[in-house]
Specification:
TransReg_Diox_bact_type (chains A, B); DNA binding (chains A, B); 434 Repressor (Amino-terminal Domain); DNA-binding (chains A, B); homodimer; DNA-binding; Transcriptional regulator (chains A, B); Cro/C1-type_HTH (chains A, B); mainly alpha
Chain lengths: 78, 78
DNA sequence: TTGTAGACTGGCGTCGACT
DNA sequence: TAGTCGACGCCAGTCTACA
């Protein structure tokens, strides 16, 4: 029930970040991104570029394919 | 031997497209993208956004996670 | 700690045309 | 068929700041 890949991506990022007990601030630092931008992405207000997706995956310590597999799962219907 | 995710992504797209006997033109049509932009991406001159990655994966008839798994394989050393 | 806002720079993605 | 170029509009991503 979530046809939007951008919103789904944000949801997954937020879930994983919280599950690791990280703040947006610390995630932003690890991924070399701006904290305000992390917030926009998590709420589906901005879509990241390829490089940013890699940076986020690295910061969350999982592979890009594993990250996007979770996005696909959310897209498939949560 | 290829540390650049953007170039690796381009290589994978080009390989898969050729393996399916598609032209850049037809891939661009399927993915609702510009042919010139497909060329830039395949040669690592431009990096796609999240939405564009999904469009490309769909046009190549494979999942985003599978697509990026192949990118990771190239990154890992071909 | 997070969401959001405004202003800003650089780059995504389109289009037309030429090689 | 594919690579590239210039011009263009729009958005990714940064920074500062406030609730």
């Amino acid at each position: 029930m979530n046809g939007d890949p951008i919103k789904s991506f944000g949801l997954v990022i937020k879930e994983i970040r919280k599950s690791q007990g990280l703040s947006q601030e610390s995630l932003a630092t690890e991924a070399n991104l701006d904290r305000a931008f992390i917030s926009q992405v998590e709420n589906g207000h901005k879509q990241p570029s390829l490089l940013t997706i890699f940076r986020l995956a690295d910061a969350l310590k999982l592979s890009v394919s594993e990250l996007l597999k979770q996005v696909e799962a959310v897209l498939a219907g949560n």
